[in-house]
Amino acid sequence: MTATAARPGSTGAGGPAERFARPVLLAFLLVAAADLAGLLTGAETVHLVAKPLLMPLLAGYAALRGAPRLLVAALLFGWGGDVFLLADNDLAFLVGMGSCAVGHVCYLTLFGRGEGRGRAPAPLVTGAGYAVVLVVFLVLIWPDLPADLRIPLTGYSLLLTAMAWRAGVFGPYAAAGGALFLLSDALIATGIAEWPQAPAPDFWVMLTYIAAQALLTLGVLTKHKPGA
């Protein structure tokens, strides 16, 4: 992941911040690998330790590379969701979903500012495609969702779908990240609805989620310019 410095001499190639950024990125990749390995092997303790470390490390890396504050905020609100979703109860799930939703608002605000600074707007045809997928998915899954979660999950899904669509403003990496984020949360929803799951479902949820956040970060850092 690369990005232009936010301030001359602070995050440029070989600058002091970059020397810290690379070890932080390596730590993120190692923790991500440990988390995924823990999920594959059934080492629940590894997952409980590793998952809460992921987004702070990625946010730290982004900050060291001069990322917009909204990107850092989005990652940290995602971290809040990660932590609350570790608890196995409905209240924690709703609080975690709310934290993730605030993160999506941060992303949407960032993408809106990017569009306003001369980047091409997200294609309407892509938005229409996302809308069709969302409607079909909600119609199929609605009867199997717990009644008290139907409305919150629908609202969250609308917000997430809008984020996934608008992510394309920051290029193909961010667009892919938005799509993977949508897939990851769709996998969570199918688990809540007790649909048939692939082997090691938590592994696939975390793999797509980690890739989504990393690609969104990469996309923003690649396209971000100082002061933009």
From TrEMBL:
The keyword Membrane is annotated on this UniProt entry: yes
Keywords: Membrane, Transmembrane, Transmembrane helix
Pfam families: YhhN
Top-level division of the source organism's lineage: Bacteria
InterPro entries: TMEM86B-like
UniProt keyword Cytoplasm present: no
Transmembrane segments: 20-41, 53-79, 91-110, 122-143, 173-192, 204-222
Compartment(s) where it occurs, according to its Swiss-Prot or TrEMBL record: Membrane
Record membrane topology: Multi-pass membrane protein
Family: Belongs to the TMEM86 family.
Identification of the protein by name: Lysoplasmalogenase
